[in-house]
Amino acid sequence: MSKPLTTDDFYDVHNINYSQRSDGIIIVNQAYQTMDQFVDYKHFFDGILISIMTEGSINVNIHFQKYNIKKGDVILILPHLLVELLETSEDAHMITMGLSLDFLSNFPVLGNFITNNQVRWQPIIQLDHQSHLILEDLILLSQKVFIQNHSEKKTEVLHYLIFALLSLLSEKYSNLPNGSNLQKNRKLEIIDKFYMLVSQQAYKQQNVSFYAEKLHLTPQYLTTLLKSETGKSMIQWIDYFVITRAKFLLRSTNDPIKEISAELNFGDISLFCRYFKRNTGTTPKKFRMHYAGVIN
After folding, report:
1. Which of 65, 168, 186 is nearest to 124 (CA)?
2. Is a pLDDT exceeding 70 seen at residue 111?
3. Residues 37/5, Cβ–Cβ less than 8 Å
4. Residue 60: enclosing H or E segment and its boundaries?
5. Given a cut of 50, is residue 114 above it in pLDDT?
6. Dist. CA 50–CA 170, nearest whole Å
7. Which end of the chain has fewer CB atoms < 10 Å from its terminal CB, N or C?
């Protein structure tokens, strides 16, 4: 069974005091003592994780594939990919930045990168020396800004730095050979096809039978497989992608909530509002007011 992690979970694990916390962002130094508690623990993060291995090495499963990560490697893990730390050397050290999906919705231009299939299948990259120095400097500078206790422009500065960092990574990935042709076992192939299908169709199709039929499986088998391997049932994955899209539209557009409801294939705005509140704990209007400052 896997467990979802949020930025708040990382704050708690690393005992970061509240004065340093920023909405949807976490930047931490991870040493052997901290990482060791995650060995043999399957989890997924509700956002993007970016790490630079500065010392030592670790063995880790990312999206069902095993990787040996060494000093100098850059790790980029997209939202909701399963991660299982298998082993860590005693001198292991990395700097990790976690960015929640709500935070990432500040950068609509990066939407294609965040869902990029190539990035999903190549979570580990080695940069040239100059690019590596720039990336490390950006993360270290972001960390210095992050730990400031009192700064009126803290969040704004972090936005600019992180946009630059993600833009650099996006450029580097665009120049890499396609890595999606690796050998996949049957379970991985099913899960991968489901991820691709639901990410494209969740806003139009919320019926579990649709996805099972497309994959030539029974709904019971598919949802059991997803639950055992990813920790989420089929309907939970559908809800996740619908809510992710809804949050993006609420934050990045001024479209009336009624239009967003229709775009997400809800026949009645009241149905959408109840659905959104059931899955997020708040209403679409309150979400928009809190994160985007737009009153609808």
Report:
1. 65
2. no
3. no
4. strand 57-62
5. yes
6. 12
7. N
